[in-house]
Amino acid sequence: MKEKVDILISGGTIVDPKNNLMEQQDLAIRDGKILPLQQACDLQAEQVINARGYLITPGLIDHHVHIFDGGSEYGFFPDSALLPMGVTAAVDAGSAGAANYESFRQNVILRSKMKLFAYLNISSMGQLGGNFPEQINPQYYDLPRIRSMIDKFPEICGLKLRCDKAIIDDWGHVPLQKTLAIARELDTRLVVHGKNPPMPLEAITAQLGAGDILCHCYQGLNSTILEQSGGIKSSIQAARTRGVLFDSADAKGNYDYQVLIPALKEGFVPDIISTDLTLSSLFHPQIYGLPLLLSKYLNLGLPLLEVIRACTEKPARILGLENRLGTLEAGAIADIAMFELKQDVAVVFENKNGDCYNGNQVLVPLMTILEGKIVYRHMETMFRYR
Ligand SMILES: [Zn+2]
């Protein structure tokens, strides 16, 4: 008798960075879990997906988004926007602070079918909108309330501080030092927005420890990861060696090609590739969403396995869920995405400064499976053309 399974994905190229695997294999799903790799002919499947010519990846994890729908100008509701992009898990990067986190949780996290996580903004109000930056005065950091949020809600995976000249104002190093002290006291991770830093970037990374994250790492304002000569600053390399993580969080303009291209040439690849998507950048041609951003890194020469690693295995490890999320190995949760890698397109990756990079390949999302259920499928995958 043939073994029964719910879904058989047949003939696709399995891309599983955690196991350094990229080869044609069948993939079977039962009861929301991935089964050990086996031959299609041994299985009786409720539904068969013909994936010949397509890539099968773990469900993507977008490690930097703004999804406080209804509570922040930046927010959008994640499921309808992100599931069709192959994204099955996402991390909100500080949209809410200790004062409004419970509202974010009730209105977004508990209503979403996706796996959602959050960094808590050090400012109690979080990031309300572009014309009204967070109150950064350390006098208002609310340690007892921050502690209570972290104790109560396990999806909170750290603190977030925007160390940006426009926000930090005259406070200099004080917000970073106070936020770090709180993060260390609560034994949690700190994510620092390092765009337009009010001090040399290396003065920020020098204070970060293993597991802390610098986001917008390829930004080009004020002080960057590069020496004048073009190489990576030795102090930035030292921070990476010490375990500080670097998140691209590109958005429409949180990177600069004058930094990004030389940095990749030097081998300074991102630990995490994330979008920093907001309501105003979602579907915008300068970022669109994670599949287009991943395509940019592919065109810049990063190998496919490494591109997918930076939005599956790596963020899953940061979340401490590497055996359940971000992998296609047997026993993992069946969060899966299917893409076509189109290699005959003319695609221009333009950023907010008007700088462009011309490419010829793009990852097009075709299907998303969440806990063993198909939650998105492009109609084209239903047919084979003669
Ligand atoms: Zn952000």
Which keywords apply here?
19 strands; single chain; 7-stranded parallel beta sheet; TIM Barrel; alpha/beta; 6-stranded mixed beta sheet; 386 residues; 22% helix; Urease, subunit C, domain 1; binds zinc ion
Describe the model.
The protein is an alpha/beta fold and 386 residues long. It folds into 2 domains: 3-57 and 330-343 and 360-382, Roll (Urease, subunit C, domain 1); 60-318, Alpha-Beta Barrel (TIM Barrel). The protein contains 11 helices and 19 strands. The strands form 4 sheets. The chain has a 7-stranded parallel beta sheet. A hairpin with a 5-residue loop joins strand 16 and strand 17 (356-359). The longest helix has 12 residues, at 174-185. The chain is globular. The model has no long low-confidence stretch (mean pLDDT 96). Bound molecules: zinc ion. This is Dihydroorotase. InterPro entries: Amidohydro-rel, Deacetylase_Atu3266-like, Metal-dep_hydrolase_composite, Metal_Hydrolase. One of its GO terms (molecular function) is hydrolase activity, acting on carbon-nitrogen (but not peptide) bonds.
Task: Write a brief caption for the model.
With 386 residues, this protein is α/β, with parallel strands linked by helices.
